[in-house]
Amino acid sequence: MSILSKTEIFCDGLDHPECVAYQSDGTVWAGGEAGQIYHISADGKHVKEVANTKGFILGIALSNDLSWLLICDSGNKCLWRMDTKTFVLEKFGMSDHTFNIPNYACFDKHGNVYVSESGAFRNIKGKIIKYNKEGQGHVWCKGPFNFSNGMALDAAEEFIYVACSFLPGVERVQIQANGSAGNREVFATLPESVPDGLAFDAAGNLYVSCYAPNKIYKITPKQEVSVLVDDWEAHTLSNPTNIAFGGKNFDQLFVANIGRWHISKINLGEKGLPLTCNR
């Protein structure tokens, strides 16, 4: 049975979602292109817009204790912190960096959060900004990356992996013992694609969703690249962007599709690597 046949529409009626985040109670968070923040029931049948930034939502990430959601807003060129109970929004982050395209965020086990700054289209200026729990930030890795996009930490948090959309491929940066950025290298190249989202499974395989074409790649720890799924019709996967593992057995892959109005769900059967908010 092909992976595409195991792929279905989880929920519909969203406004071209770029992002998706899975919460341990089974609910899902997503964003829209007009600033919407959506909270989706575990069965996918109920979609509620709980907040709106009036911008354009790219990546989102749940804090380690699930108390707040970090939101990357390219329309307003800023980060937001949203309380997951009250849905109150407030600006997040204090640093000397001025965002142009804040794209994606991921938390480490200490509560620090890394945020990709894409820079600009066709202009290699991408960076990674790091914030501590108090929201104080600095440019952690100057790059420059060729449009730094989705990111993922490996299980040991020894490297942060970065989708570089116009490389096109994936780079990784070593996280040194003192928390600073170490060596940077190309992990894989993906010709004729626009990689966007990243997620690890428990076995250390890296999944890369591509805005174009409508593919998700699988890269083994030995850097062997294969196509996991390809939807040439662009109906179930349509410009897939961010991805997140979830489900009862944590072996389903949720996919945001900015080309349409839905979140897809792949019944993958491979357990994902839990993010800090799912542990």
Short description:
Helices cover 0% and strands 53% of the residues. It is mainly β and 279 residues long.
Task: Give a description of the structure.
This protein is mainly β. It has a single domain, classed as Neuraminidase (6 Propeller). It is 0% helix and 53% strand. It is built from no helices and 24 strands. Strands 1-24-23-22 form a four-stranded antiparallel beta sheet, with no helix packed on it. It has a four-stranded antiparallel beta sheet with strand order 2-3-4-5, with no helix packed on it. Strands 6-7-8-9 form a four-stranded antiparallel beta sheet, with no helix packed on it. β4 (36-40) and β5 (47-52) form a beta hairpin.
Poorly predicted regions are none
Largest sheet: 4 strands, antiparallel
The level 1 CATH classification is Mainly Beta
Mean pLDDT: 97
The SSE order reads EEEEEEEEEEEEEEEEEEEEEEEE
Task: Tell me the number of helical segments per DSSP (H or I, 4 or more residues long).
Answer: 0
The coarse silhouette is globular
CATH topology: Neuraminidase
